[in-house]
From TrEMBL:
Signal peptide: 1-19
Cellular component annotations (GO), alphabetically ordered: endoplasmic reticulum
SUPFAM superfamilies listed in its UniProt record: Thioredoxin-like
Domain of life: Eukaryota
Identification of the protein by name: Thioredoxin domain-containing protein
GO biological process, one term: response to endoplasmic reticulum stress
Keyword list, A-Z: Disulfide bond, Redox-active center, Signal
Pfam family, any one: Thioredoxin
PANTHER family: PROTEIN DISULFIDE ISOMERASE, PROTEIN DISULFIDE-ISOMERASE 5-2-LIKE
All residue ranges annotated as the Thioredoxin domain in the record: 10-136
The keyword Lyase is annotated on this UniProt entry: no
Transmembrane segments: none
Species for this entry: Gossypium lobatum
């Protein structure tokens, strides 16, 4: 066989192999099966990916699996998709060791390749609500009472919520960049007197802090620095 034909054959096989791998890593709403051959590729392919390190014999893992299956298509359908994946850590021990897995199931959330421990809820609907925080805008701009109510309801009870009423957007943006992983941030640009009564402030600008899980609410009047 001539050299050009050999090169062409090798390139064709390489291209086909890469195409097959690309198909495996599509965010198609299914939980991806990862191992040592495709883990790094998956982490680099998706901006947001939650990985379940499990063991087949683990009872908690078996109960978690259908919850992930249910959440996967919802998360894949977000404007900023979140991919769910799993690794048999009992089989791929080197991969588990590399990521400091010492119990099952262990969930790790990778944002732009950077891992963090996932300590949120594991029921499908709550897991979706929790993870939406990480792909939400840094600051939500709210232009009506109904928009404020919708924002608070969608935020859920897992993270503190900050609403700047009549507050310079730059102030909130600076906070949001620093604490994006820990809280929700918004600026209310248009609101009624009813909103002022509901959130218990009597002048603007003001910053209302809510922590729904503790049913706590605080108001700060500044000074605020942009």
């Amino acid at each position: 066989m001539r050299l050009p034909m050999i090169i062409l054959l090798v390139l064709t096989i390489w291209k086909a192999g890469n195409g097959s791998r690309a198909n495996e890593l599509k965010a198609d709403g299914k939980v991806l099966e990862l191992d040592e051959s495709n883990f790094d590729s998956a982490i680099s392919s998706f901006d947001y990916i939650l990985v379940d390190f499990y063991a087949p014999w683990c009872g908690h893992c078996k109960r978690l699996s259908p919850q992930l299956d249910e959440a996967a298509p919802v998360l894949a359908g977000l404007n900023e998709p979140i991919v769910l994946a799993k690794v048999n850590a009992d089989k791929f021990t080197r991969l588990a060791s590399k990521h400091d897995i010492d119990g099952y199931p262990t969930l790790k959330f990778f944002m732009h390749g950077v891992p963090m421990e996932y300590n949120g809820p594991r029921k499908a609907d709550l897991l979706v609500q929790y993870l939406k925080k990480f792909v939400a805008p840094d600051v939500s701009i709210l232009s009506s009472d109904s928009a404020i109510n919708d924002f608070v309801e969608a935020a859920g009870t897992f993270f503190p919520i900050y609403i700047g009423f009549g507050l310079n957007e730059t102030v909130i943006s600076n906070l949001a960049v620093k604490y994006k992983k820990k809280a929700w941030f918004s600026v209310a640009k248009d609101f009624s007197d009813d909103a002022m009564v509901l959130y218990d402030f009597d002048k603007v600008p003001s910053l209302v802090a809510l922590h729904p899980s503790y049913k706590q609410q605080s108001v700060f009047y500044g000074p605020f620095e942009g």
